[in-house]
């Protein structure tokens, strides 16, 4: 299996955690693209096919981007993993009900990100179902 990921975030430390977690198993994730903002993400989504998207919800415009993409049938089955410093339980529940498949709290931990990648990879191969839950 070989998946492709889009990372929409500008914060170096958390982006690095996601990127290194994706590279940790090259047989699962063949390549990833990083967009430092929503416009770059839109351009990448228009020209590439992705199997998963990691979205920094603290980045300006990302909640709106998520909403737009969830409303587009082309992206309806695409797993979206949101990340934020805001871990208020009510806010997380709202985010999950608005179209996120999973939520990761910042600062990100490599083992938690890897587990989420493995969960998505299992979903794509038909081995498991992605559960909507905060991590």
From TrEMBL:
Keywords in alphabetical order: Phosphoprotein
Modified-residue entries (4-aspartylphosphate), positions: 56
Protein name per the record: Response regulator
A Pfam family it matches: Response_reg
Span of domain Response regulatory: 4-121
Residues forming coiled coils: none
InterPro entries per the UniProt record, alphabetical: Bact_response_regulator, CheY-like_superfamily, Sig_transdc_resp-reg_receiver
GO biological process: phosphorelay signal transduction system
Signal peptide: none
Matching PROSITE patterns: RESPONSE_REGULATORY
Phosphoprotein found in the keyword field: yes
